[in-house]
Amino acid sequence: MNQTSDLLTLRSVSKSYGTVPVLYDIDLAIRDGEFLTVLGPSGSGKTTVLRLIGGLEPLTSGEIRLDGRDISGMPINRRPFNTVFQDYALFPHLTVAGNVGYGLSVRHVPRKEIARRVAEALELVQLGRFTGRFPAQLSGGQRQRVALARALICQPRLVLLDEPLAALDLELRRQMQEFLKSIQREVKTTFLFVTHDQEEAIGMADRICVMEAGHIRQLGTPHELYYKPNCEFVARFFGENNLVVGTLGEAQGEFRAIETALGRLVCSVAGQPHLKAAAIGARGFAAFRPEALHLAGDGDAGNRFSGTIADLAFAGSSTVATITAGGDTAQRLRLRFPSRVDGSVLRAGETVALSFAPHEGHLVLA
Amino acid sequence: MSSAGLGRPIAIRWSPLVTALAFALPVLFVLAPLAIFLVYSFFSVDQGQIVYAPTLANYLRFFTDPVFLPVFWRTIVLCLSVAAISILLAYPTAYFLTTLHGRWRYALLMLLMVPLLMSYVIKIYAIRSILGLNGFLNKALVGLGIIAEPSTLFVFNMNAILLTLTLLLIPFAILPIFLALERIPQVLLRASDDLGASSLQTFLRITLPLSLPGVASAASFVFVLAIGDFLTPQMVGGISGFTFGRILYSQFGTAFNWPFGAALSVALAVVVIVAILLGERFGRNRGASL
Q1: Which of B160, B224, B242, B289 has its CA 20 to 30 A from that of B152?
Q2: Beta-strand runs (E) in chain A
């Protein structure tokens, strides 16, 4: 059983705008204290999930339970959640201190206590010197941190973050990712973070919930999603991946064969009973990461095939080779290997023998 | 270079001319007449002839004659009241408009602006017939049993001017307030809800302060338009409703004392400029672009 308890559960939650459905029967359990990222392309319904939980919009059907109690009808200002909005939504006429203290001040907390807690919150986000400034006088990263302090000061059970890093440049975004993660560890509050950026999701989340077209496709740790995607969408969306279409062959223990244009490939199905049980002849994909593919040595017992190098792209610490393989059906594959100072041993146009180990391959049903 | 260069010589040839025009028009039609007025205010009149010798007599008369200053102050108070009442009525209207969605919002706004398309004089006549002793207002009040017989409280006096100016100028108050309210990003209101504020708290702490620049613009608009008006007091003010605008008018029209009229205009212009500057000062957001 789960040792960590569920804070919030969504049960067959649906949402339509007029007659247009945007969420279909979502079930999701958010654990107390975790950093859960909802990841999906735009239009996947991820922001809608956040808005429903935050109470910005009513459910069409289903229910949301907090500590087992239905809160679907609870008005937004009663919910013990606070949101960090995409464009921060700081109040332009209030100072940093006024913004951060807002949630306490509307609850009629005594002024002295507000001042003390505002100072604490600003210290936490390293903005202690900025109390008297107005939002317009702050940089993007500073506004971001004010918005975070404002959300944290009411000690919410759950902090909802709606793509809060989208407006920041790359370097600042990296810093803020680490910063958010460290703050989350420090305050031990549950964070629900919505993003379309899978790198961001991998870097910060304890668990990731991948959404597409109003459905949850997969929920798991970044490691699980990366190495054991359960469908073609997740396999393609989550980082670079090589997918080779084929028909499933027989299962042998923790492995199963798939017949493809590259020949018979053997992939791991460990811990995934649905893959072991799938019918022989079912359509599926062999999925393997570019870094799992390598040049085959003589005694290599892995999945071997030959391919022609179409292109080589230097990407700093690694180099990516684009390879065509599989003869007439011309599969395009990627091979990633560490870059070397004296240049690549591979040449474009060269035909090479390639392989990947069965335990680094994975099956995905089509 | 070639394609971009084609359009430029023409633009360069014309631009000094356009610039000169842009400066010349306001100078010729606004600044020059104002300057002439200012100069005239230092002249005097002797037996219907203007004496072109500089004197401060007009200003001295304005400040010392017991007639002018009281009317001046009373007119300022009247116009401040007009501005205040207009805003009290316009704010809820504008707020209601922003709660409407889509095309209703603008359809209703257009309807509220329709009176601006009508002739000023016709509107005053219409209001006069409503306010008169046998007017609609008195008949309605008597008919409803609120008063026993027609009241003279708003017939040809200051109250009549107050009511008429307010009615005439309300559209000028609604528009800036509506625009200020509409410019407030909805997400700020949601953020306030999200932080636990009730809808009243959200209004008082977020919506109202953020709409104050619009209120300031509205107030200065209405005040400036009201204080410059002489037609309305003339038509609904009767004998007791004497305003500064009417005095001004009489100096130019009946008394034919242009220099003194010019001096009075300068006094009025000072008030108007102060009102506009105040409106401008508070009409800007406190260092906060969103």
Answers
A1: B224
A2: 6-17, 20-31, 35-39, 61-66, 69-70, 81-84, 158-162, 190-195, 207-212, 215-220, 242-252, 255-260, 263-268, 283-288, 294-295, 303-315, 318-325, 331-338, 351-356, 361-365
